[in-house]
Specification:
Blueprint: E1 6-7, E2 23-29, E3 32-34, E4 54-56, E5 59-63, E6 70-74, E7 80-82, H1 84-87, E8 93-100, E9 116-125, H2 126-133, E10 141-146, E11 150-152, E12 155-157, E13 161-165, H3 166-169, E14 175-180, E15 183-184, E16 194-196, E17 209-215, H4 222-225, E18 229-234, E19 237-242, E20 249-254, E21 259-261, E22 265-273, E23 278-284, E24 292-293, E25 295-296, E26 305-312, E27 316-326, E28 342-348
Parallel strand pairs: 6-17, 21-28
Antiparallel strand pairs: 1-2, 2-5, 3-4, 6-7, 8-9, 9-14, 10-13, 10-17, 11-12, 14-15, 14-16, 18-19, 20-22, 22-26, 23-24, 23-27, 25-26, 27-28
InterPro entries: Ig_E-set, MoCF_OxRdtse_dimer, Mopterin_OxRdtase_euk, OxRdtase_Mopterin-bd_dom, OxRdtase_Mopterin-bd_sf
GO molecular function, one term: molybdenum ion binding
Organism: Mollisia scopiformis (Conifer needle endophyte fungus)
Length: 350
């Protein structure tokens, strides 16, 4: 453990939060980010841990596995609690899903950061646990608490807390995951268990999860009220909506931005993704004046989708633009939004 560990004794724990005693401290303490490699390096369908972006808001929980448990309470007929070993007795499920970071909630949502990967998660469907707990009809949201705590963006809180509408929480793909890419979920990735909500932004996937609470309203913590909400215009009205499902997005893997090519024949390809899947990717060779359809592979579960387009370029400088459209008809904007199109500039030297 590093010298940066923040002792748990500095963090007051109430008796009703006794499951939080499994947190022995934080390491790293405070905000941590590891950016992904540039798009041209993300060539594999499954993203290895070493290439997957990494974001920790308030610190990485150090977990005592002997005392670790997950409590299920709130508006349920049968409150539950179980250890990691007991969780693993439930039938498991493996889901391949893209995993995307929304980006900093402290900045306007106008920059596409392409913090994205494609991961295999293994765990227990949350639906199985909720069915055992038997939620009451008035339970509309599922709150999830992580063992981490501290300060972010000038706000201090005793826990990272998010929520899901019960309809999403009861869907077949949402997991309490304890493996990533076939290996036990590491502590820095939110292990021993984190919530996984495929198709939704990573901020909703609570790490070091220790409590699941069924409630009638949304959670009131800063990560649902102050952070990770957007202003959405609908007709003449503006409304605040949570950052939940992922908008259509794409990135060009080949050619790399800044590449110097020795051939005129270029196989353009990349990845595209959205909550409901991508049905079309268009490529522009003239800075968005005209677009041509690329070939796109079908989605596997909640995975990202590979697109490709063959083109011949004369010698000189060129740019490529890729634009994705989702099943619902939503299309990537050219600029001004966090999911704006990706442009790659390159030179043909032949």
């Amino acid at each position: 453990m590093s010298a940066g560990i923040e002792a748990i004794k500095q963090h007051e724990i109430k008796d009703e939060d006794r499951e939080r005693k499994a947190c022995l401290g934080l390491d790293p303490a405070g905000f941590y980010i590891r950016h992904p490699p540039p798009p041209h390096e993300l060539t594999s369908f499954i993203t290895p841990d070493s290439q997957l972006f990494h974001t920790i808001h308030m610190g990485g929980a150090i977990v005592d596995l002997d005392s670790y448990k997950i409590v299920v309470d709130g508006l349920v007929k049968n409150p539950l609690q179980f250890s990691l070993l007991e969780l693993k007795q439930f039938p498991s499920k493996t889901i391949t899903a893209f995993h995307e970071c929304y980006g900093s909630p402290l900045n306007p949502p106008t920059t596409n950061v392409w913090r994205i990967g494609n991961v295999k998660w293994t765990g227990v469907p949350l639906k199985c646990i909720l069915e055992l707990a038997q939620p009451f009809p008035e339970a509309k949201f599922v709150w999830s608490d992580g063992l981490d705590y501290g300060s972010f963006g000038g706000v201090t809180t005793d826990r990272y807390q998010k929520d899901l509408p019960i309809e999403k929480a009861m869907s077949d793909e949402v997991l309490l995951a304890y493996e990533m890419n076939g290996s036990p979920l590491s502590r820095k990735r939110g292990g021993p268990v984190r919530l996984i909500a495929p198709g939704w932004f990573g901020t909703n996937m609570t790490k070091w999860i220790c409590r699941i609470s069924l409630q009638a309203e949304r959670a009131g913590g800063p990560f649902t009220t102050k952070f990770y909400n957007e202003v959405h215009s609908s007709g003449n009205r503006e409304e605040i909506r949570p950052v939940w499902d992922v908008e259509p997005n794409s990135m060009i893997v080949n050619p790399a931005d800044g590449a110097k090519l020795q051939t005129n024949e270029v196989e353009v390809w990349g990845w595209a993704w959205s909550a409901d899947g991508i049905v079309e990717v268009e490529v522009s060779l003239d800075e968005g004046t005209t677009f041509s359809n690329a070939e796109i592979e079908a989605r596997k579960e909640f995975s990202w989708q590979r697109f490709q387009y063959s083109a011949t370029f004369p010698s000189g400088s060129h740019s490529l633009m890729a634009r994705a459209t989702s099943t619902s008809g939503a299309q990537q904007p050219v600029s001004g939004r966090r999911n704006h199109v990706h442009i790659a500039h390159f030179t043909v030297e032949q």
